[in-house]
Specification:
Its main location: membrane. By secondary structure, the protein is mainly alpha-helical. It is 74% helix and 0% strand. Helix 3 (75-88) packs across helix 5, helix 4 packs parallel to helix 8 and helix 8 (161-177) packs antiparallel against helix 9 (182-202). It is globular.
């Protein structure tokens, strides 16, 4: 592996063993609903996206019943993750293009996954330590003054979400790229079940009575512990999946992170990282301005984000992950054909596929998965957005025990 040619030159080196292995997991279910197909991957991705969204909605309700003034504090966790998102949209986003190249030998793709996970974990740990050290400044930027002093502990605990988020994103996106969406589903399932069980015991209306009443820091500690459980479960399941593969390389060579693999991911990943850094810097600047307006506006923005990311964006995230996976596959297959025939010119059929809109078992055409996801998203999202804009936002805000002023602001945000 150490002497292998650059990634771009190995596109046509897929062996019969690789083909046999990539098809070996489809025998237990009909092909249409296999995780190797668009339909099957989409169903699994919807479940993986819905579970954490349900929890994020429930936790605001539970915190509001403990102390409604601290609902806005829980949004600090979200804003920390916005910073971490810059890291998560760098190399992990490149996994769909690089690792998702199904024409690449399977051992090389697995090594790219291992390299990505190792890099993201190390970078996430560094970011967590920086966040812990700068917790007062983070609280000053993203928590209203009325609860800022009491929120520093919450920010310190939530700082370790950088480590768990970076690791989870690396595992999730990389394994989706090798047609294993069941790995991120396992992460979401384990994390969400642990969160709901522990929150039900310690935070909910039916919680166990203890000497000390639960606080917002209790919720942060539970969340961090459960995030860790999800990451460990995902890593263990990934190890189990790889050990089942009949790889024709030495196990140590496959598992060991390599500089060449990191460079292969970094080249396309730098573009998405720079774009994410600019976009999220503008978003955090907007958040800082909203927080300065006071607790009502900060709480309303948190409710709006809960609606957006906890409900509206669940199908969008699932569709985006699925389309990115299969666009990467189609790109790799087209590149293999292009290298074989010595031409880099893509035809219209190469881009959008044959006239038959939906294939029986798989997508075809580089752009076809993205087009299909876009059409599905429009059918779902337009009615959903209209419903929340005109009717559902204020009733939803009332579940968070928000005041009338906060409910009005939330409605205006949703309408706009």
């Amino acid at each position: 592996m150490a002497d292998r040619a650059p990634i771009a030159d190995t596109a046509s080196q897929k062996t019969g063993e690789d083909v046999e292995q990539e098809n070996s997991f489809q025998e237990d279910m009909p092909r249409r609903f296999s995780r190797n197909t668009y339909t099957g991957a989409l169903l699994i991705n919807i479940l993986a996206s819905a579970l954490p969204a349900i929890y994020d909605t429930l936790v605001k309700i539970w915190i509001s019943k403990i102390d409604s003034s601290f609902v806005v504090t829980t949004d600090a966790y979200t804003y920390i993750n916005v910073i971490v998102e810059v890291l998560n949209e760098g190399l992990p986003r490149a996994s769909y293009l690089v690792i998702g190249d199904s024409a690449m030998p399977l051992p090389l793709r697995v090594n790219l996954v291992c390299t990505l996970i190792a890099f993201q974990t190390a970078a996430g740990l560094v970011m967590s330590l920086v966040f812990v050290a700068s917790a007062p400044k983070l609280a000053a930027a993203f928590v209203p003054a009325s609860v800022r002093a009491a929120s520093i502990g919450y920010v310190r605990i939530s700082s370790f979400s950088a480590l768990t988020s970076a690791t989870e994103t690396a595992v999730s996106l990389a394994t989706r790229a090798i047609d294993r969406p069941d790995v991120p589903f396992m992460i979401s399932l384990c994390r969400t079940l642990a969160n709901i069980i522990l929150d039900f015991i310690f935070l909910s209306t039916f919680r166990v009575k203890t000497i000390r009443e639960p606080t917002v820091n209790t919720q942060a500690s539970i969340r961090m512990a459960c995030n860790g459980i999800g990451c460990i479960a995902g890593l263990l399941y990934f190890v189990y999946v790889v050990r089942r593969l009949r790889l024709d390389e030495e196990r140590k060579s496959v598992w060991m992170p390599k500089w060449s693999s990191l460079v292969a991911l970094a080249k396309p990943g730098m573009h998405t990282l720079i774009e994410s850094a600019v976009r999220n810097a503008l978003y955090l600047w907007l958040i800082h301005g909203i927080v300065d307006l006071g607790s009502d506006y900060a709480t309303a923005w948190g409710i709006f984000n809960t609606i957006r990311w906890g409900l509206v964006m669940v199908p969008v995230n699932a569709l985006a992950a699925t389309s990115a996976t299969f666009v990467g596959h189609e790109w790799g297959l087209w590149r293999e054909r292009a290298l074989t025939r010595g031409s880099t010119q893509a035809s219209l059929t190469d881009i959008i596929g044959p006239r038959k809109f939906v294939s029986s078992h798989k997508t075809s055409g580089i752009f076809r998965p993205a087009l299909l996801s876009t059409l599905i998203a429009l059918v779902i999202e337009v009615p959903l957005c209209l419903a929340f804009s005109f009717w559902l936002t204020r009733p939803f805000a009332s579940f968070d025990f928000a005041g009338d002023a906060t409910q009005v602001v939330s409605s205006q945000l949703a309408y706009s």
